[in-house]
Amino acid sequence: MRKSALVIVGLGSVAAIGLPAVPAGATATRADCRVVAGTPRLTPSGQIQAAAARSGCADRSRVRLRIVKVLPGPDRTVKSGSTSVRNGRLSIGLACVPGTYVTVVTDDRGHLAKSQKARLTCDAPDPDGSGGSATGTEIENEVVRLTNAERAKAGCGPLTHDARLRGAAYAHSADMSAKAYFSHTSQDGRDFGQRIKASGFAFSAAAENIAKGYPTAAAVVKGWMDSPGHRTNMLNCAYTHIGVGHVAAGGPYWTQDFARS
């Protein structure tokens, strides 16, 4: 297996954990100080998002928010986050995989809340020049379209936007956004090859481009094309598939995963 890992550093600032409004959730275990859990939902960008809140409390506590996939067996947590807060709201998200999910929120004082179950199908938006695959958001598909336009100039065939690669790319961008870092290596130690393998895409060669701070699809593609190493990945005619993940918060953060099946 041949892999290449190339970094492009863009502009942008580190973002704090977002605190959006929380939809109605389960009742808390105590009347005054309480936690509530919002039902998981699918965002327009194709992300599963869960939100929670703590209110009426006089002391600070570490609040843990989990997205749990409803399956037989032990705890099926697929994403977890925590923060220390007295009263406030928090949210987490991850790339969507079809299934039934529930939000669970707890704090150090013994409060617990669970949301209603949500069955999410992860229906993707229609493509926009994305190589014939109904995968990704409009801005992600624009990156694919522009990348394929550059490949055409170089005599390479178009890349197909693959849902598994898109999931790996989006999850990495979301993780960098949520944890405020910028690296090909995830904070759990995985490299891009391991993330692509975990997505279920079997590959004989792979590569990754990442970027931060570029405001548009055209800007990030130009940034990558102006960098020799990233340009090499984009114009490698051996690659057949691509996944693009874009997350705006704190960046924007961009990930391109390339692979040959």
TrEMBL record:
Pfam families: CAP. The keyword Signal applies. Gene3D superfamilies: CAP. Residues 1-26 form the signal peptide. Keywords: Signal. Residues 145-258 form the SCP domain. CDD domains: CAP_bacterial. This is CAP domain-containing protein.
